[in-house]
Design goal:
about 220 residues; alpha+beta; Alpha-Beta Plaits; about 30% helix; globular
Length: about 220
């Protein structure tokens, strides 16, 4: 199961300091306690104050993860989170759908990702939104040519309160830092709630396997 959450930095902390603490301390702590299958932090690169600073993606048994975050582990994470984040981010369950490009591999921090958080403006069901995003995304990718290496849709399947009331995310992996998803207005049934460029940091599979266990 894939889970996405928006993480906001602590008041008075710079975005760079937030990213550095997340990557040098909190990510390693998380890997120690949670059995991630894949774990990515997308740190915002170009956005102003829009209410969050990182879009976290992880593949994990969500209910099992919530069961781990109790007692001593809860206290450890609450103490660490106070050092760099405003509040604990609530994970949202999503279904990832490949729009174009090769299946996902390890995200490199040398790449740029453009991410849109979108809302279904028509009130139609999830399948209709996915179809509309798929059609629009493929057109954008074709127009961008080699600048767009991959594109995915993350369709929200659970509660969406931690995604600015969004129904899906549209993500493009870019070969440059030039946005491609904002080149054309979306279809009438899609409302863009947030549009950001981000730098991904992913914990590689060997590190996930080696890191998990001692704390539990």
């Amino acid at each position: 199961m894939k889970v996405v959450s928006l993480v906001t930095r602590r008041d008075g902390m710079s975005r760079k300091a937030f990213r550095d603490y997340y990557e040098t301390h909190h990510a390693a702590l998380s890997v120690q306690y949670f059995p991630f299958e894949k774990y990515v932090r997308n740190h915002l690169a170009d956005a102003g104050e829009i209410g969050f600073d990182c879009i976290m993606e992880c593949w994990i048994d969500h209910q099992k993860a919530l069961g781990i975050l109790t007692g001593k582990v809860e206290r450890i994470f609450a103490e660490d989170e106070r050092k760099f984040m405003q509040r604990r981010a609530r994970g949202v369950e999503v279904e990832e759908i490949l729009v174009t490009g090769q299946p996902r591999d390890l995200d490199s921090p040398n790449l740029c990702k453009e991410i849109l958080i979108v809302q279904n403006a028509s009130g139609a069901g999830g399948k209709e939104l996915s179809d509309s995003l798929m059609q629009w995304g493929r057109a954008l990718a074709a127009d961008a040519g080699g600048k767009c290496l991959r594109m995915t849709i993350d369709r929200v399947t659970g509660m969406k309160s931690d995604l600015l009331d969004g129904d899906a995310l549209l993500t493009a992996w870019l070969s440059t830092d030039e946005a491609v998803l904002r080149r054309a207005a979306p279809p009438p049934d899609i409302k863009i709630l947030a549009a950001v460029l981000s730098q991904p940091y992913e914990t590689a599979q060997p590190q996930l396997a080696e890191g998990f266990g001692p704390g539990c």
